[in-house]
User: Fold this.
Amino acid sequence: MRVMRICQPASRESLALDHAETRAPGPGEIRVRMRAASLNFRDGLVVGGVFPVRDGLIPLSDGAGDVVEVGEGVTAFAPGDRVVSVFHPNWMDGQADRIDLDNSPGGPADGFASEEATRPVSHFTRAPANLDYLEAATLTCAGVTAWRAVVTNGQVKPGEHVLVQGTGGVSLFALQFAKTAGATVIATSSSAEKLERLRALGADHVVNYAETPEWGQAVLGLTGGLGVEHVIEVGGPHTLRQSFIAARTGAHVAIIGAVGGFDIDTMPFAIVQAKRLRLQAVTVGSRRDQMDMIRAIEVHDIHPVIAEVFPLERMGAAFERMGEGRHIGKICLEI
Assistant:
């Protein structure tokens, strides 16, 4: 079978197409023919060498495909079932300890940039019946992260306000899940094209942060001075201050990523204390979160936004496109 590997020192240029032997499933395992995968910000950090990984690692946490063979004792899946990978296969439900989060695919464990994968049953869930392979392959990281932020932790209710940032995978999933929950969504971006797309996807209000650097105040204005009950914070240190300004007293702020960069001199903790904000870090979610999300996707016929599709062997070009930051939604690979 064909696989993509990260050679050391890691970089987009070090990605190499290789061949590997397929492996029959052992007890409790399934063998999956992978059909699609998707790229995440985290995958870019792995490929770029920011997160150290072993030489020859197969990247990408997100993949979808068909079960082709099951091992002894497997009853949850049968050949022909469509499945999607799980980000934290040892985190089954509830809260997790660090020991449960140490074998994520795409680093440190092998990921799904391959034609086949043989893994334990817990490394997959069924795929949504209403999604194709490419759409299903976007769910593992970005989808579950947004679900955890909006539903599991946030428990967003009808009539509440949710702030999302940009047009990346997590933000768009959060927008869709929040609208399904009956919330009013305020979205930020820096381009007119992206803001228009956000409106088309259901955003009730949009703010151009390039034109309005103090966009936290603009969000306050859109909520009658009260602020939003929920912030899906993906920008990191460079957006935290404005997010805290935009938040309502007692608001839930889901701390997810740092797509805007990591360096910062001071943190606006005075705002956090004054507003009694609830900061909740999100490290994707559990297998149960993924199963709950999939049911909601089917019931509400939610479809992920896909920006562009590349073949497996052009993974380097796919990462380059993601690094440009002009895409709306997920960049995927067809396997």
The chain has two domains: 2-138+304-334, 143-281.
